Amino acid sequence: MEVDLSGLVHARANGVAATYKGVDISYRGLRALIDQARRVVAAGTGAVDLVVGKSPEAIALVAACWVEGRPFLLPPSDLGAEARSALRAQAGCRQVVHADLTIKDIQTGKDIPPVKDVQDAVGTPELDGVGPMLTTSGSTGLPKVVPLPRAAVDRFTEWAAAAFGIGAGSVVFNHAPLNFDLCLLDVWTTLRAGGHVVLAEPDRALDGRALARAFTSADVEVVQAVPLFFRQLLDATDAVFPAVRELVHTGDAMPPGLLARLPERFPHARIRNIYGCTETNDSFVHDTDPTAGTPVPIGRPIDGVHARLDGAELLVSTPFQAERYLDAARADRWVEQDGRVWFRTGDLVRQTPDGVFHLDGRADFQVKVRGVRTNVRQVEEALLNHPDVTEAIVLALPDDEAGYRLHALVRPVGEARPNSLTLRSHCARLLPRTAVPSAVELIGAEFPRTSTGKVDRKKLLAERV
Asked: 128 phi and psi, to 5 degrees?
């Protein structure tokens, strides 16, 4: 497969590379943007902090960093200034580049702004061979910087292109922001293979009608997204999408009720669940059965991935993984054993006799209620089993007597209005007594979301503590 110098964008001169806000940009046009972006990137040294939203200009800037061999930090666009400054210092970034403004300045003939050292860069970490530096957040504290080796990205895009049949002309939909690891498939695998990526507007990622317009701007063949996207799309339009052949849900639990709606609207799609994390990239795949009515397993390890359990915690070793966080204080998540480097995922998993792995929750989602260890994910699954519930989040609120009490937030289906007693009785039939929520709160509006489309549990918790 012929590629240009960036290694991330195919050498096709003709054909559509990307569609954004209804406007197509060709491979020739994208290469011109990359050449312009290189003028800025080449003027500095060391790591770059990229201030990007999502646009062809942002894609060009990332590719320009790749061409010039410069590691680049891609934190969430909505990250606070203080946190971003701390991550920039940790990554040793000495240049900050604003993607859209910089390239627009070049296009209008303005001088390239001089490169200045960033004042809060406090050191120069070892970043040989590193490309993107993504971030992942824990339950508390500063996000963690995950430096991904360029070779690991190469291996991943090769695997993804083969696994999902992405080649020249393939149309792939992208819902995630550029700082999310899903883009390694949606955007970079597609552009490396000569495909056509349809970009959802990041500031309209929760607008079902806008998403439907973007999704129908081309005959999408491959779509990977969190469950929120599929619900918004199906609620916004009655259209059927026969061109979709690969439908991948990932990043969050797929509600059984939503899953059951997919085959009718995507009649020719193979529906698969992909499991992974920022530190390791995709690790497991499962062919989903929309009729099962039960939580979807994470499946089996993909080729080249090794998995084992330490008690109930899942450890994985993948060809695509990072080797560390930049914060050395968090190095205990990587373990060298049996000639491999394993990553402790923090996910609680069980393996059934047929070899399939099932996710039971996260270690940090386990709390003690009246001395009994309780997994809030299992409580959420019980609530989702009720026909009147479309989404459920369970929060563990501090309690002087019980240690924690479970507070459930429920979004009902349509006009349904299940009461608290009904839902608590439903949970009591499925769960131990200590796992039954002490309160159930009906929510009419959409849950708040993080930039990656997941429910913002921190915000919900802060509003109720």
From this structure: -60, 130
Instruction: From 261, 315, 265, select the one nearest 290 (Cα to Cα).
Output: 261
Domain count, the chain: 2
The bridge status of strand 16-20 relative to strand 196-199 is parallel
Q: What is the CATH number of the domain that holds 193?
A: 3.40.50.12780
336 and 413, same domain (yes or no): no
The helix-helix angle for 256-265 and 227-236 (nearest 10°) equals 60
Structure-block tokens of residue 389? 């519930």
What pLDDT, in 10s, does the model give residues 406-457?
999 999 998 889 999 999 999 998 888 888 999 999 998 889 888 777 888 8
pLDDT tens string 207-251: 899 999 999 999 999 999 988 899 999 999 999 999 999 999 998
* CA separation for the pair 89, 121 (Å, rounded): 4
> Comparing C-alpha atoms, which of 224, 188, 201, 196 is closest to residue 65?
188
How many C-beta atoms surround the C-beta of residue 377 within 10 A?
19
Tell me the CATH number at 453. Answer: 3.30.300.30
At residue 203, does pLDDT exceed 90?
no
CA distance 375 to 368: 9
* 223 shares a domain with 178: yes
Q: Quick count: other Cβ atoms within 10 Å of Cβ 416? A: 12
Report if residue 357 sits inside a domain.
no
SS3 of 272-323: EEEEEECCCEEEEEEECCCCCCCCCCCEEECCCCEEEEECCEEEEECCCCCC
Residues present in the chain in total: 465
The first and second tokens of residue 15, run together, are 């054909």
Instruction: List CB contacts of 341: < 8 A, sequence separation 6 or more.
Output: 317, 321, 323, 334, 335
Its sign, for the CA torsion 264, 266, 270, 276, is negative
Domain that holds residue 404: 370-462
Cα angle value 112/114/116 (rounded, 5°): 145
